[in-house]
């Protein structure tokens, strides 16, 4: 009779997320994942499912942590414009300091084009970020911190498109100064 292996699923998901983050979906083997999670493959299949189901859980875990970070950042900001600036600066520093980049951005290129479920998760995450930024822009306009002529949705799209492009630049050139300069340029553009 097979014995049931008990493990902390949240810790296992976090460890598997790190593997996917480092190696990508296709680069992470089942062995890599189960070794990191400190479980055997039968425990994985019996509790979480296959590699794809694990990846979905990991991506959702990653996105939830990112959302909590955004919420905490907004609560600590002195104003809506300060929250937007903090967001941009945090995005640039994450790009510079995290060798693995953004799991969501990496997944958008590696897995999303051929996987409707993953694409749906990523679209929902992008919509959340876009709505978050658009809401901050609207508040900043109402507070007189930004011009009333700004289109909050368009500006939110511009911010998202800007920092996602920085990931590619950093992968290609690993130039921290370049990323920080681009972040400051974006801040100047939205603050004027």
Automatic annotation (TrEMBL):
Tell me any Pfam family this protein matches.
Answer: TetR_N
Question: HTH tetR-type domain: from which residue to which, for each copy?
Answer: 6-66
Q: Name one GO molecular function term.
A: DNA binding
Q: Which UniProt keywords apply?
A: DNA-binding, Transcription, Transcription regulation
Annotated InterPro entries? Homeodomain-like_sf, HTH_TetR, Tet_transcr_reg_TetR-rel_C_sf, TetR_C
Chain residues forming the annotated DNA-binding region: 29-48
Q: Which PANTHER family match?
A: TRANSCRIPTIONAL REGULATORY PROTEIN
Name of the protein in its database record: TetR/AcrR family transcriptional regulator
Q: Which organism is it from?
A: Siphonobacter curvatus
């Amino acid at each position: 009779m097979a014995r049931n292996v008990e493990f902390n699923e949240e810790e296992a998901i976090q460890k598997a997320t790190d593997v996917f983050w480092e190696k990508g979906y296709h680069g992470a083997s089942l062995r890599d994942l189960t070794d990191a999670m400190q479980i055997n493959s039968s425990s994985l299949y019996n509790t979480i499912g296959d590699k794809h189901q694990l990846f979905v859980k990991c991506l959702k875990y990653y996105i939830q942590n990112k959302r909590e970070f955004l919420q905490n950042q907004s609560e600590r900001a002195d104003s809506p414009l300060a929250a937007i600036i903090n967001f941009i600066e945090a995005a640039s520093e994450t790009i510079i300091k995290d060798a693995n980049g953004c799991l969501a951005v990496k997944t958008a290129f590696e897995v999303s084009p051929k996987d409707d479920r993953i694409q749906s998760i990523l679209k929902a995450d992008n919509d959340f970020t876009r709505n978050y930024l658009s809401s901050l822009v609207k508040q900043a306009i109402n507070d007189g911190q930004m011009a009333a002529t700004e289109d909050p949705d368009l500006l939110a799209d511009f911010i998202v498109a800007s920092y996602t492009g920085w990931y590619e630049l950093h992968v290609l050139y690993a130039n921290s100064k370049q990323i920080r300069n681009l972040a400051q340029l974006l801040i100047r553009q939205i603050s004027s």
